[in-house]
Amino acid sequence: MPTPPRHLSVSIACPFARAYALLAPPENFPRWASGLAGALRRDGDGWLADTPQGVMPLRFSPANDYGVLDHWVSPPGQAEVYIPLRLLARDEGCELLLTLFRQAGVDDAQFEADADWVARDLAAAKAWLERDESAGLSAPPAATPR
Q1: What's the pLDDT at 36?
Q2: Is the sign of the CA dihedral 47, 102, 143, 16 positive or negative?
Q3: Cys-Cys link to 16, which of 45, 94, 113, 118 (CB 3.0-4.6 A)?
Q4: Number of domains in the chain
Q5: Edge to edge, what strands does the sheet with 46-51 contain?
Q6: Which domain holds residue 126?
């Protein structure tokens, strides 16, 4: 029987449309997702990321009106991993929610470490999106890769 997933979220004081416009482009993921903090480049219909584990192929959900930011990563020598990510409108702001599924062979300690990593990345997204507009949202928050 599969283990229950972890749902991690952060409330963001940024209008949904603005947050989605900044989060959706794949080239912006390295601004907050520390696992993608290396070079991210287009490769045909997909993307390639330079990660501590090596070059990793990625796919991203197409732009949509529903806040779906799902992506799929293919760690070297492993099966593709689906990462459901949603942006939900909430009052004047929004909620960014990631569902973390435990992968085969991941023990409790590693699953908790993965959840902590996701929480840090969500906090980085929040910090980036809530920056003063006068900063232009051009500089990413400091990301600490695993």
Answers
A1: 80
A2: positive
A3: 94
A4: 1
A5: 40-43, 46-51, 54-60, 71-73, 81-83
A6: 6-131
Q: Please, which pLDDT band fits residue 136 given cuts at 50, 70 and 90?
A: low
Instruction: Identify whether 144 is part of a domain.
Output: no
Q: Is residue 100 part of a domain?
A: yes
Q: What string of H, E and C letters represents the secondary structure of the chain?
A: CCCCCEEEEEEECCCHHHHHHHHCCHHHHHHCCHHHCCCEEEECCEEEEEECCEEEEEEECCCCCCCECCEEECCCCCCCEEECEEEEEECCEEEEEEEECCCCCCCHHHHHHHHHHHHHHHHHHHHHHCCCHHHCCCCCCCCCCC
Look at the block and give the residue holding tokens 């990631």.
Answer: 98
Comparing C-alpha atoms, which of 136, 134, 142 is closest to residue 30? 142
pTM listed for this prediction: 0.85
Q: Are 74 and 81 in contact (CB under 8 A)?
A: yes
Is residue 53 scored above 50 in pLDDT?
Answer: yes
